[in-house]
From TrEMBL, chains A, B:
Keywords: DNA-binding, Transcription, Transcription regulation
PANTHER family found in the cross-reference section: LACI-RELATED TRANSCRIPTIONAL REPRESSOR (PTHR30146), LACTOSE OPERON REPRESSOR (PTHR30146:SF153)
Residue span(s) of domain HTH lacI-type: 2-56
Protein name, entry field: LacI family DNA-binding transcriptional regulator
Organism: Streptomyces tamarix
Source superkingdom: Bacteria
Keyword Glycosyltransferase included in the entry's annotation: no
Entry GO MF terms: DNA binding
Matches recorded under InterPro entries: HTH_LacI (IPR000843), LacI/GalR-like_sensor (IPR046335), Lambda_DNA-bd_dom_sf (IPR010982), Peripla_BP_I (IPR028082)
Length: 341, 341
DNA sequence: GGAATTTGTCGAAGCGCTTCGACGCTTTCT
DNA sequence: AGAAAGCGTCGAAGCGCTTCGACAAATTCC
């Protein structure tokens, strides 16, 4: 392996000079810099990460804790993870992948071993075990998600409440007066991740203001689960003319079932979703949707964490404004009563 | 931060003794070990990763290169990544997440900086730029996937050829004589990742032996894409009575379309898939499938790479045997000609 | 024109750990 | 009984880098 010393010797300067060329922390004459850089290129030198971390006590690594669970919509996690990795690289950081498995111990391990300079946590619960540790940690952390008490922490998330409100407005604006919400699996609510509840709050509040009746049902993502939920919904509220779906796995089955029942979308019934754009656009009926901006969330989280590392930082909650895209699945409330075939 | 020296002092031994307690590389009396371990627990000591890496020239990190692309079926990637992270942790390793973005440069960087002890590469192309570098590298690597020339490399993958053969056998056994293969998007074939072609080879060969006619069509994963492909298939081969789908995004649309056309699965037409078990089990008709064992692949890759790191290793290709699970989507060839409504 | 400042470079001290050789002690062998 | 071997511990060297203080040389100041 080529070391700093090798480069120094090759360039005819001292080791510290090479180090300063690399870090730019002291001024270096143009000629020396050129010579050193040529030597680096010629020898194919790469600084040893361990040595660097030891000497500088910065590893240039950001830890990313992702959930193990598979009941969340996986592509969103993946998209976030990739955005994190890509953005981090752009700032000179690598990403260490931790699974939720280790739980709070992972926070302690990272903190203690100085493996990473900072952490990004996904799948944050309202009362997350990891938060107390994170608050005491000397290394900065950023959450993707919003816990019950975000004080002393940085958080990035979609403004799900606003997203819910936006859905209510859109449908109310089209004349709908009875809306059903097809929610996440019951397990998601039980886990208290918060985002599903926040959406619901936004939906409820705005619906109330707009005089719209709302029915909410959690729903398993399987075809059978959606069928059962749908049946119950029409049973309880036969006058339902619009659906809001916050459950990625349920959108396709829902559309298929409605079609099967002879209810045309959007003529007889409107459907809108809160999901990644890609999913909405490629559904069998392109869905009017509020997008879950996975990439933006990952990017923001990294930028926040890097800002904190560089001291130009702050705790604080960043809620991304929701954006509604109108596609083909929503329309005015049908004039005649809906009559399934 | 608590250091080794602090622990040593607290326990009344030398630093090297503490180190040997930690590593177990020299024998330590039971009493000393107990004392040191108590001090470690009491002080909450965690070895500094950088120092350790520098002194031992082992980082206990495995790099995982995942593709940036989003045209592959993401849950499989994610499942592999999580399996890799979990298995690695079980062996005392952490996982560094690299995206394909950096390409071959990433291999050089990891190698040069000693950031990781080994690498696992996903999304391997038949003629992958990274392979020459990997062959020369001093650190072991394992591929998930199978390149054109695997010599001097370790590879883990599903035996897609056998998987294809298995599908042909199953359908032929049920009496089908005309099979259509709904393949991956054309882009996947163009990228020369190999797995799609290998499946096709297996299908073709075994079909030939069994006297079954095979039609293969690449297919976009969208609803519209599947509709177009399906139309073309029935146009060219009206006698088709069975489908093999190797395209996770196409399974649901295909089932929906067949239903819409009044073709009952499996009474009028059989459908089987090569996809993760979960997807097959939760489709609107539970699918007979050959599972893509994402977890196993991740686990095997880590075990292979760890074995290499510990010297009880070997290059070599590990092809996982495919497993067929019969569910509800395949049945005997219909006796009467298929008559779509 | 000499003092004060800035610029560019170097040497040396460490960062916290692993590991090697050494050493005293106990056990085993013949 | 004495030599050989094994056990348990320690001290010191060194992994490759960053960073601080020092110091000549070049520049600026009144």
């Amino acid at each position: 392996m080529v070391t700093l010393a090798d480069v120094a010797q090759h360039a005819g300067v001292s080791a510290s000079t090479v180090s300063y060329v690399l870090s730019g922390k002291r001024s270096i004459s143009a000629s020396t810099r050129a010579r050193v850089e040529r030597s680096i290129a010629q020898l194919g030198y790469h600084p040893n990460a361990g040595a660097r971390a030891l000497a500088s006590s910065r590893s240039n690594i950001i830890a990313l804790m992702i959930p193990l669970r598979t009941d969340m919509y996986v592509p969103v996690m993946m998209e976030i993870a990739i955005a994190v990795a890509t953005t981090a690289r752009g700032h000179g950081y690598d990403v260490l992948l931790l699974t939720g498995e280790e739980g709070p111990a992972a926070v302690r391990r990272i903190e203690g071993s100085a493996l990473a300079d900072a952490m990004i946590l996904m799948d944050v619960e309202l009362e997350d075990d990891r938060l107390p540790l994170l608050r005491e940690a000397t290394r900065p952390g950023v959450l993707i998600g919003l816990p019950a008490d975000p004080s002393g922490l940085s958080c990035v998330d979609l403004d799900f409440e606003a997203a819910g409100a936006l859905c209510a407005e859109h449908l109310a604006g089209l004349g709908h007066r009875e809306i059903a919400v097809i929610g996440e699996a019951a397990a998601v609510y039980e886990r208290h991740t918060g985002f599903a509840e926040r959406t619901l709050n936004g939906l409820r509040e705005r619906s109330g203001e707009l005089g719209v009746r709302l029915l909410h049902r959690p729903c398993e993502g399987s075809y059978a689960g959606v069928a059962a939920t749908l049946a119950r919904v029409y049973d309880e509220r036969p006058g339902t003319t619009a659906f809001v779906v916050q459950n990625e796995a349920a959108t396709d089955p829902l559309l298929a079932l409605l079609r099967q029942q002879g209810r045309a979308v959007p003529e007889d019934v409107s459907v809108m979703a809160i999901c990644p754009d890609q999913l909405a656009a490629h559904a069998s009926v392109p869905l009017t949707s509020v997008r879950v901006p996975a990439q933006d969330m990952g990017r923001h989280a990294v930028e926040q964490v890097v800002a904190k590392l560089e001291g130009r930082a702050t705790d604080g909650v960043v809620l991304l404004a929701p954006e509604l895209t109108v596609r083909e699945s929503t329309g005015p409330r049908p004039v005649l009563p809906v009559s399934p075939r």
